[in-house]
Amino acid sequence: EPEVTQTPSHQVTQMGQEVILRCVPISNHLYFYWYRQILGQKVEFLVSFYNNEISEKSEIFDDQFSVERPDGSNFTLKIRSTKLEDSAMYFCASSEMDGNIQYFGAGTRLSVL
Amino acid sequence: AQSVTQPDIHITVSEGASLELRCNYSYGATPYLFWYVQSPGQGLQLLLKYFSGDTLVQGIKGFEAEFKRSQSSFNLRKPSVHWSDAAEYFCAVVGGSQGNLIFGKGTKLSVKP
Hints:
The complex is a heterodimer.
Chain A: E1 5-7, E2 10-13, E3 19-24, E4 31-37, E5 43-50, E6 53-57, E7 65-68, E8 75-79, E9 88-95, E10 103-104, E11 108-112
Parallel strand pairs in A: 2-11
Antiparallel strand pairs in A: 1-3, 3-8, 4-5, 4-9, 5-6, 7-8, 9-10, 9-11
Chain B: E1 3-5, E2 10-14, E3 19-21, E4 24-26, E5 33-38, E6 44-50, E7 56-58, E8 64-68, E9 73-78, E10 87-94, E11 101-103, E12 107-112
Parallel strand pairs in B: 2-12
Antiparallel strand pairs in B: 1-4, 3-9, 5-6, 5-10, 7-8, 8-9, 10-11, 10-12
């Protein structure tokens, strides 16, 4: 069964450093999403991406965040200057159509020290 | 604004007992509703979905959920719980125009022998 793949599974970084979280969505999917889950809290939407541009973003997704699909298969989330409060599990998801079933990756746990 | 409420933070049931996890949503139109399960250290796995039609939907692992518009609820049920069902369960509704999901805070299920 096709699946969404995220790398790395765990990323440790120093505060102020840039990190790039990588995702390979399911190949025929057109809509891509990033969510995050701070430890003990609910999963929160960050951004959706369609047709090579951001289609929707939450208030969490400020100027330090960016997304891109550099090569038609990978979908990346960049955090330009990490803060302690960025420590969370970051989930990538993809779907064939908007409003349809989203398939999630196993997540990347980001630890900012 | 759309929202999802899962009133129970933690539920413990005996193996073999029945289970019902509550979910209430706030949404203006007909909602697209989902239940996801997250095992420790794992990503989010889709259990079942409701888009339209029959209000009782069947999912994987023997789970079912019933959509009740009058109560704005989408409760998850299982007639006989197995130890492997111990996990965190998230109810979600499609929120934005691009299909981003709004999650509840989750219900942690513990199963005692």
